[in-house]
Amino acid sequence: MKPPRPQTKIAMLAALACAVLALALLPGCKKAPKPAAPPLPKPAANKTNAVAAASLPLEFVSVFDDSPPPGNKGRDPFNPDSTSRYPAAEAPKSTAPSSSEPPLLKLYSVAGSPGRWLAVINNQILATNDDPTAVRIQGGRTVMVKVVEIGEDYADVTIDGGTVRQHLTMGQKK
Questions:
Q1: What pTM, to 2 d.p., does this model score?
Q2: Which residues, other chains included, contact 143 with Cβ-Cβ below 8 Å and sequence gap of 6+?
Q3: Which end of the chain is less crowded, N or C, counting CB atoms within 10 A of the terminal residue's CB?
Q4: What is the C-alpha to C-alpha distance for residues 52 and 43, in angstroms, rounded to an integer?
Q5: What percentage of residues in the chain have a pLDDT greater than 90?
Q6: What pairs with residue 145 in β-bridges?
Q7: Which of 116, 132, 113 lies closest to 124 in space, CA to CA?
Q8: What does the alpha-carbon distance between residue 112 and residue 126 come to, in Å, rounded to a whole number?
């Protein structure tokens, strides 16, 4: 039988040292027992406030007056300048535009050269030789717009195949 090689001997000694170290440390790895929590004080049977109902110690109770604003004047103790507790004002009723009014179109820009103008109407690029194009207007609706004529700072369009021209100019309000 051959004697073990020096490398094998070193490996066996290292494994033995690790095993001894693990056995030495293992008993010290026990978890410490948790201390018992102190019992909560029992509420008195005749108390009817929120503190007694929640079974909380009296030292942790905070008071927040949540009555309507006339009683507490709407004051938030954590943010006294806040107006969030005031009743909201009623929103005004909006009147929808009648269908006889022309849709709201806005000419944002005109680019190109004479004879080859492009108009940007409601974020849609249009040219005079284009077919009627769907353009989104206020309220999420779409209308079919056909560009009849484009100049340096204006565009004439017809809406939904109509014969009436609408003249749009740069800087015009919606």
A1: 0.41
A2: 103, 134, 135, 137, 159, 160
A3: N
A4: 5
A5: 18
A6: 133, 159
A7: 132
A8: 12
Side chain identity, residue 3: P
Q: pLDDT tens, 59-105? A: 666 666 566 556 555 566 677 677 666 666 676 665 555 555 566 88
pLDDT in tens, 128-140: 888 999 999 888 8
d(C-alpha 121, C-alpha 105), whole Å: 7
Q: Indicate the pairing of strand 133-136 with strand 116-121.
A: unpaired
Q: Where are the domains of the chain?
A: 107-169
Tokens of 143: 């209308």
The residue written with tokens 């004002």 in the block is 89
The residue type found at 131 is: D
